[in-house]
Amino acid sequence: MEKLGTLRVENLNKKFQVENKEISVLENINLTVSPGEFVSIVGTSGCGKSTLLRLIVGLGDEYQGNILLDGKRINGPSVNRGIVFQDPRLLPWLTVEENVGFGLDGKKSIDRRKIIQEHINLVGLKGFEKVYPYKLSGGMAQRAAIARALVNRPEILLLDEPLGALDALTRMYMQEELEKIWKREGIANIMVTHDIEEAIYLGDKVIIISCRPGKIKRTIPVPLSRPRDRDSLDFIRIKEEVLKEFHLQAEQYFSYAI
Ligand SMILES: Nc1ncnc2c1ncn2[C@@H]1O[C@H](COP(=O)(O)OP(=O)(O)OP(=O)(O)O)[C@@H](O)[C@H]1O
Ligand SMILES: [Mg+2]
After folding, report:
1. CATH code of the domain containing 43
2. Could you give the number of structural domains in the chain?
3. Is residue 164 one of the residues assigned to a domain?
4. For residue 198, is it within any domain?
5. Does residue 219 sit within a domain?
6. For ligand 1, is residue 101 a contact (CB within 6 Å)?
7. Atom 16 (ligand 1) nearest CA
């Protein structure tokens, strides 16, 4: 028996119509994400990573194959899947607490307040409840976006380059914060990133997607205890393995281009 909260992507194919031409963006994607698992996805720009996340969150149903949560086909967005985009996308006219509560599914106001406060505390924004987004730093705004995505207690959190706009030090700090939140919430995370070290630091496995069309080229498990030591030999070995795949991919890509 499969555990509750298991996501399965089966033989997924996605095409886009561009100027009367059909382009195949994702081809034969097969993927299982277990409850509580942290999956990292890497791949060069334009290989279909955001498209894959958008389909999993339920934005767009024109695809071939199956995307199943607990055996049921995903059709449309739902509170059991939250998403965080590269930019925080907070509503500028709402405070932090109003942004976090914006999509909260109908609850009594006393419960609403409690849930919103819990999630603001969870991402370390206690004291900033009444603050408007323009007064937040990039990292704080992204934390508010994470709280908003978690407020309905989804089974799966989808993260599309959530830390991409941050400076290196804040980014490392936020990676640790993300790991803490993931552990506390016990939900599955699927994170797209361009940062290979970030993918290995956080992922239970790293999925490498190749380009044109996007296919799963390799899945590399990360069997390292947490928190991970970025300087350890085992970490560096996995990093080399992932990088090797990218180099092979680049060679192939440029030989097509010539
Ligand atoms: N709505 C759309 N209509 C037509 N083509 C699209 C649409 N959305 C995405 N594409 C195309 O699909 C391909 C994959 O796009 P996607 O945004 O998924 O890539 P990505 O891997 O997330 O790239 P990046 O790393 O730059 O964010 C690109 O070639 C893009 O132009
Ligand atoms: Mg993208």
Report:
1. 3.40.50.300
2. 1
3. yes
4. yes
5. yes
6. no
7. 48
Residue-range definition of the domain harbouring residue 23: 7-257
Calculate how far, in angstroms, residue 89's C-alpha sits from the geometric centre of ligand 1: 19
| Whether the Cβ atoms of residue 34 and residue 3 lie closer than 8 Å to each other | yes
Nearest ligand to the CA of 44 is 1
- Asked if residue 215 is part of any domain, the answer here is yes
What is the identity of the amino acid at 168?
A: A
Q: Is the CB of 171 under 6 A from ligand 1?
A: no
At 73-118, the pLDDT tens digits run 988 888 889 999 888 999 999 999 999 999 887 767 778 899 999 9
